[in-house]
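User: quick one, fold this
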Amino acid sequence: MGQALKNDLGYHRIYVCGRKAYDNELAMYRHEGVSRSLSCVAEPVFDAHPKIAYRIEHNGTTRWVTDLVDVVRLRAHAPDAHVAIVPVLR
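Assistant:
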């Protein structure tokens, strides 16, 4: 689904490994190594080169966004959600 979103709507990706986020695959491999990068996931985002990402944890799920408007909307619907600001490494 992430690939379809990227191609159809112009989405970009950040690569998430645990509690860290990376701008591209090369940065992910450089910081995490090839073996650890197998457990990383690509998250579709609107920003081409985001500097920060927001990790939102609620009801046992984790969502990654790069737009503060998304954070505000999610917090309005779920005030008990935990939001963490994570730098996107390059």
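User: anything notable?
Assistant: The beta strands are 12-17, 20-22, 41-45, 52-58, 61-65, 82-89.
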